Structure formats: structure tokens, C-alpha cells
Amino acid sequence: MTRPVLVRVDAQAELNEAVDWYERRRAGLGVELVSAIEEAIDAIAEAPQAWPRWQAGYLYRKYVLRRFPFVVFFTAEGAGIQIVAFAHAKRRPGYWMRRSSQ
């Protein structure tokens, strides 16, 4: 049984920005990023504990996309899942940690 997934507003905004950037580079590429993100969210919702913790001692888990240089950071506490960030894998590491997990 999958758990409900909440995408933070700031995470959605950064995804929208990335989609726009890829779409400007090549028509359809942004749509492919959205598809990869949807697959990631489905996998996370199905088995959130299957994905490793970001670092020992943190509640955050990560799902690394294969084709695009993005990492989906999320928490899976309680009955739901919260997507905290759709972070570029090579830019500003840890910037999203300032976000509250609420």
C-alpha cells in the first residue's frame, strides 16, 4: 500500500524551474524530467524505507535519479511522505536543510 505524498511548495517551485530550464534546452526534455520525477515519487511512495538515509543521524532519505542529475530528498515519518527538495546533484549541497520538515 502506498503512502500519501506531500510535495513542499518550495520543492515544487525548484522542480518547475528545472523543467523550464530543460525544456528551453530541447523541446520535450522537461517533460522527460517530469516523467522521471513521477517514477521516483511512485517508487518512494511504494517503499520509502528502501531508499538510503541522506546521512547518518538525519531523517532525510534520498532517491537519486538515473538520467538527470537530481536527487529527491524526502522524509517518511508517520503515515505520510514529504518531498523536501528536488535538488541538483552538483549545486549547493545541503541548501534544502534549512527548510522545516513541517
Automatic annotation (TrEMBL):
It comes from the Bacteria. The chain crosses the membrane at residues 68-89. Gene3D superfamilies: RelE-like. Keywords: Membrane, Toxin-antitoxin system, Transmembrane, Transmembrane helix. InterPro entries: RelE/ParE_toxin, RelE/ParE_toxin_dom_sf. This is Plasmid stabilization protein. It comes from Sorangium cellulosum. The lineage of its organism: Bacteria, Pseudomonadati, Myxococcota, Polyangia, Polyangiales.
